[in-house]
Amino acid sequence: MLKLIQVEFLKLRRRKFIWLMLLAALFMPLAAVFYFASVKGTGVEPIEFYKWTAFSYTPWIILPVVLGMLCTMLMYNENQYDMLKQLWIVPVNKMAYFFSKFAVVLVYSVCFMLITAAASILTGVLPGYIAFDSGSVLYLLRKCMEISLLTAFAVLPILAAAAAQKGYILPVCLTLVYTFLGFILLMVNMYLHPLSSMTAIVMRDIPGVVITQPLNIPGAFLCIGVWGVASVLLAGAALKKRK
Amino acid sequence: MELLLWAERRKLRRSKILWIAGFATVMVALIVFAQGQFTFYESRYIDGAGWFMTAAQSLATFYVLPAVIALLGSYMICREEQEDTLKSLRLIPVDEVKLTLSKMVLALVFSVLIYLLLFAITFLVEAVLHFEALSIGLVLGNLKTYLLDGIGVFFAISPIIALVARMKKGYWLALVFAEIYSFAGLFASMSGQLKTVYPMTAVFNISGYYDASMVQVFIGIIVLLACVVLTLFILKGLNRKAK
């Protein structure tokens, strides 16, 4: 299994677009700079600033879209060059193949959120919007880790859909619809969709966030778990069916 | 050109992309409908006449449809390279700029059709829920907004599709870029000046979703024309690159 994961990372070496996609992590920190420059000014509470840069649209929209695209790319890669047959001949265990892809998504997600965290601190401290203090930085890092790990599990359905498909069109459209659904369900029912459940878990102890629905952390974990297990089963069945 | 358009239309017959784009549009309508169930001051959003039609077009434009339209356009362009038909086309010979332009014209038509489909769905739901509360002016106003959104959004993202035509394999980056580009409109709409010049929000100024002055509409038209000029400029170098 470790070897498979290593091979997956080696495959990424020459795919510069995957690395370029990490630039999307800078979007919200940069948007926050413009926002605070025009509206708030200096002397902002660090958590208030991080809420803008790392705890809002990054986990709601940007990270799921980027991870969804990554899932599609990783799965489509083998199909495009007709490598899957050869992998089955080796033989590579189909579930190990699926989980090695998931490991890449997980690591990528962690890298993405670490970049967001670093950019948040830099864009906050350098122009003087926030004061640098270790407590808030550690809090930011802990939250970014939570977001990255949970989002990677929350996009398992996309990875499964990409594994079940030969093309890239459907998984890409699904990513967009899935992310949008997760975002809208935040206001309706947080415990139906893995992405909104992830938000519920992350937002549970962020000061100043008002959640209109009763907080149900086990329910949120259950939702992510059920969707995750269903996706793994679906991916397993789909990969077994494919020749 | 007419022949190229006909050929492009024929090529899409067996492709699932139109169905998938239609599915994404229907899903967007369903998701916004789910948001309409949210109760605010003891009345649901969906109970307000015209809310569904207005909310669906703005949410769809910020979160989903521009990326779907970029996907449609870039898929039509990239498949020639991927399925190795571009070589045969060059042998005929087919002018690559004209070929790409015909693909873009078709993408424009689909962009308008997708918005009209969304309008048809939202209008039907509104008619079923509260037919008597709908006025002809409201419906026609929304039809105009959807129609202009369809045309405007295509013009706003046309440089991205043109870039894909140049880069061929860069469609992943284009998709992520299209999504972030449309989603950045949310932030652009916070500032009065940026709202006028940012292509995505300029579309809303032109379509009448935002209350805009004549000057803002005029600037919006210039911005979109600039996008078209940029597209043509990017496409101009295509033939030279092919050699």
Uncertain stretches of 5 or more adjacent residues of chain A: none
Biggest chain pair contact, residues each?
A-B, 32 and 35 residues
Per DSSP, what share of the residues of chain A sits in E-state strands of 2 or more residues? Answer: under 5%
Please give the oligomerization state of what you see.
Answer: heterodimer
Q: How many strand segments of chain A?
A: 0
Helix coverage percent of chain A: over 70%
Spans of at least 5 consecutive residues with low confidence of chain B:
none
- What best-fitting shape of chain A do the alpha-carbon axes yield? globular
The domain count of chain A comes to 1
Order of helices and strands of chain B: HHEEHHHHHHHHHHH
Quote the distance from N terminus to C terminus of chain B.
22 Å
**Which outline of chain B best applies?**
globular
* Strands of chain B, count: 2
Number of domains of chain B: 1
Query: How helical, in percent, are the residues of chain B?
Result: over 70%
What does the average pLDDT of chain A come to? 88
Over the alpha carbons, how many angstroms does the gyration radius of chain A reach? 19 Å
Major β-sheet profile of chain A: none
Rg over CA atoms of chain B: 19 Å
Structural class of chain B: mainly alpha
